[in-house]
Amino acid sequence: MRGSVALVTGGAGGIGAAVVEALEEAGARVAVLDRTAPEPREGRLFADCDVTDAAGVEAAVDEVVARAGRLDVVVNCAGTATIAPALEIDLAGWESTLRVNLTGSFLVSRAAARHLVAGGGGRIVTIASQAASVGLAGHVAYAASKAGLLGMTRTLALEWGPLGITVNTVSPTVVLTPLSRPNWENPAGEALRAQVPVGRFAEASEVAAAVLFLAGPGAAMVNGHDLLVDGGYTVR
User: Fold this and answer.
1) pTM, rounded to two decimals
2) CB within 8 A of 87, min separation 6: which ones?
3) Which among 106, 142, 160, 201 is annotated as catalytic?
4) N or C: which end of the chain has fewer CB within 10 A?
5) How far apart are CA 74 and CA 69, in angstroms?
6) pLDDT digits (tens, 9 = 90+) for 134-182
């Protein structure tokens, strides 16, 4: 991917940071859109951006293109979750989860698509979740937002494919990051891990590898697809 420019939302930590690293190792120049600055690295760009702010998103994407000169790949990693039973979740938690995960991904994709079209096409990859395909107790808002991403992606793939843009999702199982590991080192985590056929959760680097494939030249004919990185959890 040498010579290409990639934009990653939520790239300062977790899955996003792993995606940034994978893209840079593949030769891409990466711009991070986040509320937190990532680790500095030569050539890496950063724009402070709230993905739920439509005007802010447009300005941040325009800034990246102006500084980098082009845009080839967009990866939507920014996300949040309000975990609570459906009878107990408050409206603010529901709305914030949908706003960041679903609306934010749409706003970034739409703002970036205009530049991708101007450059002859490109790739958009969005991090969804296994929760988009199966029910998970306590995840009503999160599941709704991630399932919405699948529908959004299929529609964008249909509309933007003729413009040279492929649009896909990656749906991981639980991903072990420095922040998430403590949350799963308990009996509940062990019980869920036992339901994954391969017997473990995913590493952020494995999700990043799936993103790298969809963002690269070998995936030119993959469009509107959800790539599960779940160890077989959703085959049940």
Assistant:
1) 0.95
2) none
3) 142
4) C
5) 15
6) 998 889 999 999 999 999 999 999 999 999 999 999 999 999 887 678 7
